[in-house]
């Protein structure tokens, strides 16, 4: 059994991260000792590592909840896991498209200022000022 600090060290995160995942319902609350200390087991460590690895893959909490629910049914088929990953890959593809558009916009702005000059004449700042009336691009990814 481990105290919260031991769990955090083993999972290479902070105590606050452990508490956060508990509050979010991703990590089950542990048993308490007679001294009211949290008492974590190996299952908590495995689940916390899974959560942290999913976050490293930029998965949303809802996606992680789905995977955790599926992981709790080890005998079930993995088709639903594949579906979660397929949806996440689609989100990543959309985010890549958004980032490519952002890069093109930034590159276009950068091309407006090719030489050192007074800030008042800076083509980048003029270009940004001209963008004020453009509607913000709507994002269609799971990140919102």
Helix fraction bin: 55-70%
The fraction of residues in strands falls at: under 5%
Q: Termini distance?
A: 39 Å
Low-pLDDT segments, ≥5 res: none
What's the average pLDDT?
Answer: 90
The outline comes out as elongated
- Strand arrangement in the largest pleated sheet: 1-2
Largest sheet descriptor = 2 strands, antiparallel
Our Rg estimate from Cα atoms comes to: 23 Å
Summarize, please.
This protein is mostly helical. It has helices at residues 4-11, 15-23, 42-56, 61-71, 79-110, 123-130, and strands spanning 31-32, 38-39.
Word description of this protein:
- The protein is mainly α.
- It is 58% helix and 3% strand.
- Strands 1-2 form a two-stranded antiparallel ribbon.
- β1 and β2 form a beta hairpin.
- α4 runs antiparallel to α5.
- The longest helix has 32 residues.
- The radius of gyration is 23 Å and the shape is elongated.
- The model has no long low-confidence stretch (mean pLDDT 90).
């Amino acid at each position: 059994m481990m105290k919260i600090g031991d769990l955090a060290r083993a999972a290479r995160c902070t105590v606050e991260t452990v508490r956060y995942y508990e509050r979010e319902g991703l990590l089950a609350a542990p048993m308490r000792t007679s001294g009211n200390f949290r008492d974590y087991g190996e299952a908590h460590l495995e689940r916390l590592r899974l959560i942290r690895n999913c976050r490293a893959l930029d998965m949303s909490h809802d996606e992680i909840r789905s995977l955790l629910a599926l992981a709790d049914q080890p005998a079930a088929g993995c088709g639903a896991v594949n579906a979660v990953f397929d949806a996440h890959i689609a989100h990543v593809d959309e985010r890549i498209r958004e980032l490519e558009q952002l890069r093109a916009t930034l590159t276009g702005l950068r091309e407006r200022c090719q030489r050192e000059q007074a800030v008042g004449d800076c083509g980048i700042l003029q270009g940004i000022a001209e963008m004020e009336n453009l509607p913000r691009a709507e994002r269609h990814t799971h990140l919102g």
